[in-house]
Amino acid sequence: MIRTLRAIAVAGAAVAALAACSSNDVKGTPTATPGGGTTTTAKGGSSGQPDLDLKKYLGAPCTILTPAQQSELSTFREAKAEAEGIDGPTCTYQGKDSLANSTFKVAFSVKGRTFEEGVSNSAAFSTFRETKIAGYQAAVFDGADGKRNCNAAVRTSATEFVLIQATIGKNDKLNDGNACGTAEQVAGTVVANLKG
Asked: How many CB atoms lie within 10 A of CB 43?
């Protein structure tokens, strides 16, 4: 009995020590601010990758995919930009034929909602997987089986992320039944373009 109590006490102390070691501190580089305080610039994820700058694409979100990259995915109507989506600018690459071609939406989340907040409710979805895309923290998810619709979110900084939504056309032979894989592929292309 005494051994059991000692084991519980030791385990409790270990848990307390681990909890004390973890914190909500932002890791990064402290820099001086004009008011004399400091701010910390965080890295783009727990992977230690540098933040990705989304500014270049905020005024022209449809330039995130080149015409050549678009043609590798599907045949699209003219890309449609929306300057003020829920979390920031978006671009929809709508399939030319809704049955034969897939549709993709790229959303830039730049209004303060973090990656963690953006994907937190998705963890309960039937299709959910945390991963890394091009070295960046990411999540791939869908409320169903991920065959026709899927999302891929990539953390680009402490307060910003990019979300790719894929809707696979019923007769799309190239991407048939693989919405999550295709969304992840598009996300990798977006990250590569953001890196420059």
From this structure: 18
